[in-house]
Design goal:
By secondary structure, this protein is an alpha+beta fold. It has 28 helices and 26 strands. Strands 13, 14, 15, 16, 17, 18 and 19 form a seven-stranded mixed β-sheet that branches. A six-stranded antiparallel β-sheet has the order 3-2-5-10-7-8, with no helix packed on it.
């Protein structure tokens, strides 16, 4: 925030404060000081008697009313007439006092004297008011003398004089000013409504403060208009006070107008507007001081206010011209037109006010204000419309972004699933040490890529406020063990010591978001290991009991790495920021880990701090409030860890030849990966490539477990499960259903549980995780534990020469990691005549989305087995789909399908031949 903006905030505060002072001044004056109101009946006519001015030498000069005499201040002006013989006791004459003291005499005897000398709070002159002189029949044909005098420039002004009863005269006066009175009331209401609407809109970030500023300006101008109208005399007892109100309103009016202009022009001319605002505040304070010390009255200080209006008009017109020249006027052309029209009518009103004081009418000001209000509201409506369009676009953009991330997650994780799945099969089946080393390197690289994807997806979800905490009861020892074991091998590979230090009195069970705390702990430990070249990383778990049910969990990760420079610490938690990136470029990562950690900690109401000494090491400390579930303490962590650690190396394998599971995935490679990973377990694996096939199979036979993919064409996994549960023929209502998905984000498990899934398994599918999931839900009687690893080596090269005449075998074997058996098993999955039927139907039905999904799937499968000619033809169709080249699709679809059919026929011939070594 720059200095001018801060100054304008101070100015705005003072403006509000001074406005409140004005209200207090009016309230106190009207409530506690004597009434000056000259308060029966609707007769009124101009008083048509002949008037004479009495000169100092007592000579008389005939005059016409109204009239203005050229006399100096404080010089009495005397006029007289003969009271007509038609007057009655219920009649009176009335005229407007122009801040004059007026004395009425009948045949030289004083019958009434009007002055505000004893009733006004401050000032030298009487208030402007309508004076009513009651008449009596005894006054007939007598001389009526009126002597007026004032210490202001209005001396010598005699306003029109009316005759009739009091009610009739008031009706006539109000009728003369009905338009401005009505407009003043309407404008006050409109100004308040604009201000409230502006504040409401600003609160909900729908619009800026333009409506607030124009509302304040309108209210002040309407107050000026209303308090210049004679109706004030009927409402307020002390006229001296209310006569000051128009001047107070005019002094303050330039301030909200200035803010309005500054906001309208996006603070481009903030400096000059700030000067005008300061000048107006100084004018208010100085005028107030001079008024309350009886030095000058507000009307005599008005020339200083005129300076503010001149500055404001000149500045705004100049800046509008500059914006017009710079083509910035298009951003507020409607309000600019309103301002220009408002200025024109405002200047006319000011001239009328200065030359026609006794017959003031605020019509021009009403028109000026209406122009400004209407154009501002029109602009506000347009702006609101633009905001709504932008909001809608933003929502669509966010939805598109979420959909893009989901699709990207699926698209990226699908090949990773194949890579890591096949890599694990290599690790399981290969006995060659060099192949094992290659496979381990490939596994580490795949896991690193997977970690990067998870970070980006998590950051995107946090950024769009879609992260929700899922609190559950959890064992603290389990959380520590799992986190430690996930980092242990990385530390061991770098010859680092990984130590655990826990307090004895830690609660054994807590209530909180275990998944997020595990993620935080893993991020800190992984960072400690990554940035520590030698020495040790120490995990310390401690905390303090804040009440019987609340525990402040503290996690500290200390390393002996190179540390962080003091200048880099403030930027440590910035997104996509890696300190000393030039020296750490060899260390993998996105720079999102600590940013995600900080946001997750704060989302749980906690805090994170860092202490670091450059060249010595760093210590990250996290504090998260948790709820105590168990009164037991964590005394057996070390024993529990030792037991867990020993189990990791001797975990028994198992076989389950009597178990039968169903795996549903629209990508055939994924089905092959799951089948390959479960080869050693002897489990009977049935597969389906769509939600419909899954439902049919579940109505025909019973399975021990079902693995159901999330994103599938036509019917996704969620829809499939819902229809399965609703089907009366379903034989697997009690069968565990595990969700398989590539849209993996931490905390997704709970979302799938709410939808009815038994559990959740993230892609890429790891063999250990898959086996562990199966062990958790398979019936115990179908599981046979085995302590020795079994291999089934099935390799052959017999049919490669025959296949080479049909497809690019080297490309297919490369995709299958040169596993001939796996490649042989992959080919029948590719040969699907129903795919041709489906694609023909979708093309005729013009179902573009599902046609695109299936043609893309066929393209990927063709590329994977080495069917290069078919893959090239399908790739051209995919490109035509992206450019809406319907002619090309129409011409080449049949050719591609014919090519696919011929390929199926040729492959069928080869696969029916005997293949030595393949069972």
């Amino acid at each position: 925030m720059n200095m001018l903006t801060k100054l304008q905030k101070v100015i705005l505060t003072l403006f509000v404060f001074f406005s409140i002072l004005c209200i207090i001044y009016i309230f106190c004056g009207e409530l506690f000081f004597p009434s000056e109101g000259l308060n029966d009946s609707f007769r009124c006519a101009p008083f048509d008697a002949t008037w004479y001015r009495v000169m100092e030498d007592h000579s008389r000069e005939k005059i016409s009313i109204p009239v203005t005499f050229d006399v100096k201040r404080n010089i009495p002006v005397t006029i007289e007439t003969t009271i007509p013989s038609y007057i009655t006791d219920k009649d009176c004459i009335a005229l407007q006092s122009c801040r004059q003291n007026i004395t009425f005499l009948v045949d030289g005897k004083e019958v009434m004297h009007f002055t505000g000398e004893k009733s006004r709070i401050h000032g030298k002159t009487s208030p402007a008011a309508y004076i009513f002189l009651p008449l009596h029949e005894s006054y007939r044909n007598k001389t009526l003398t009126m002597i007026s005098v004032t210490d202001c420039s209005y001396n010598g002004m005699i306003s029109p004089i009316f005759y009739g009863n009091r009610s009739g005269i008031w009706k006539h006066i109000i009728g003369m000013h009905a338009f401005e009175i009505t407009m003043a009331i309407i404008l006050i209401a409109a100004g308040i409504a604009c201000g409230c609407a502006g504040l409401y809109a600003f609160k909900f970030k729908m619009h800026n403060l333009l409506l607030v500023h124009v509302g304040a300006s309108t209210v002040l101008a309407a107050i000026w208009l209303f308090f210049n109208a004679p109706i004030k005399q009927l409402l307020f007892p002390n006229l001296s006070v209310v006569s000051d109100v128009p001047f107070l309103a005019l002094i303050l009016l330039p301030i909200p107008i200035s803010f309005y202009l500054d906001t309208l022009q996006n603070n481009r001319y903030q400096k000059i507007y700030c000067f005008i605002e300061v000048y107006c505040l100084m004018n208010f304070m100085v005028s107030g001081i001079m008024f309350f010390t009886d030095t000058l009255e507000y009307r005599e200080c008005f020339r200083f206010t005129i300076v503010a209006y001149v500055l404001l008009i000149v500045t705004s017109l100049t800046t509008i011209f500059i914006d017009f020249k710079n083509k910035d006027l298009m951003n507020y052309k409607v309000p600019a037109f309103g301002l220009l029209m408002g200025y024109i009518f405002g200047v006319i009103q000011l001239i009328l006010y200065l030359i026609q004081v006794t017959t003031f009418n605020g019509t021009m000001m009403c028109i000026a204000l209406l122009f400004i209000i209407v154009t501002t509201i029109i602009d506000g409506i347009h702006e609101y419309g633009r905001k709504e369009i932008d909001k809608t676009n933003a929502i669509h953009s966010a939805q598109a972004k979420s959909q893009f991330l989901a699709n990207m997650s699926h698209e990226i994780r699908t090949p990773i699933n194949a890579i890591l799945g096949m890599d694990e099969m290599i690790l399981r089946e290969s006995t060659e040490s060099n192949i094992q080393d290659y496979a381990k390197d490939l596994q580490r690289a795949g896991q690193s890529l997977l970690s990067l994807i998870n970070d980006i997806l998590d950051y995107s979800k946090i950024e769009s406020n879609k992260i929700e905490l899922v609190n559950v009861n959890y064992e603290l020892s389990s959380l520590i063990n799992d986190s430690y074991n996930m980092v242990y091998m990385r530390a061991k590979d770098k010859n680092l010591s990984l130590e655990i230090d826990t307090e004895k009195d830690l609660p054994s069970a807590l209530y909180g978001d275990e998944v997020r705390i595990r993620q935080i702990l893993l991020n800190l430990l992984s960072n400690g290991v990554k940035y520590t070249p030698a020495g040790k990383v120490t995990l310390r778990i401690f905390g303090e009991k804040q009440s019987d049910t609340t525990f402040l969990l503290k996690i500290s990760v200390k390393d002996t790495g190179k540390g962080i420079k003091m200048d880099d610490i403030p930027h440590l938690f910035d997104s996509f920021n890696r300190v000393e990136d030039s020296s750490n470029h060899h260390i993998e990562g996105t720079g999102l880990g600590l940013s995600i950690t900080k946001q997750l900690v704060e989302l749980m109401g906690g805090s994170i701090t860092v202490e670091s000494e450059y060249g010595v090491g760093s210590n990250f400390t996290v504090e998260i409030p948790q709820t105590i579930v168990s009164t037991g303490t964590l005394n057996s962590l070390k024993l529990h860890y030792n037991r867990s650690g020993s189990e990791q190396g001797t975990k028994d394998k198992f076989v389950a030849p009597q178990a039968k599971i169903l795996v549903v995935d629209d990508v055939l490679v994924n089905l092959k990966v799951v089948s390959g990973l479960l080869k050693e377990t002897k489990i009977q694996v049935d597969t389906a490539t769509s939600g419909l096939q899954c439902i049919i199979k579940c109505e025909e036979q019973t399975y021990d477990m079902i693995f159901l993919d999330h994103m599938m064409p036509n019917m996704d996994g969620i829809e499939t499960l819902a229809k399965m549960q609703a089907s009366s023929k379903n034989k697997n209502k009690d069968t565990p259903v595990i969700m398989l998905t590539a849209n993996a984000l931490a905390g997704a498990k709970e979302e799938y549980l709410k939808l009815g899934f038994t559990n959740y398994l993230s892609k890429p599918i790891l063999g250990a995780a898959l086996e562990e999931m199966i062990l958790n839900y398979l019936p115990d009687e179908k599981v046979i534990k085995s302590s020795s690893k079994e291999y089934e080596d099935e390799q052959t090269t017999y049919f490669i020469n025959q296949l080479q005449q049909i497809i690019d075998v080297s490309a297919g074997l490369e995709f299958c990691n040169n596993d001939v058996v796996f490649f042989h098993e992959l080919l029948p999955a590719f040969m699907d005549p129903q795919m041709i039927v489906k694609l023909d139907e979708l093309k005729h039905e013009k179902d573009r989305d599902n046609y695109t999904i299936l043609i893309t799937t066929l393209y990927n499968n063709a590329k994977n087995i080495g069917a290069t000619a078919l893959a090239a033809e399908l790739n051209n169709i995919i490109n035509a789909l992206s450019t809406d080249d319907l002619v090309y699709i129409q011409d080449h679809h049949t050719q591609a399908m014919r090519l696919y059919a011929n390929l199926i026929e040729d492959l069928s011939t080869v696969l029916t031949l005997p293949h030595p070594g393949i069972q």
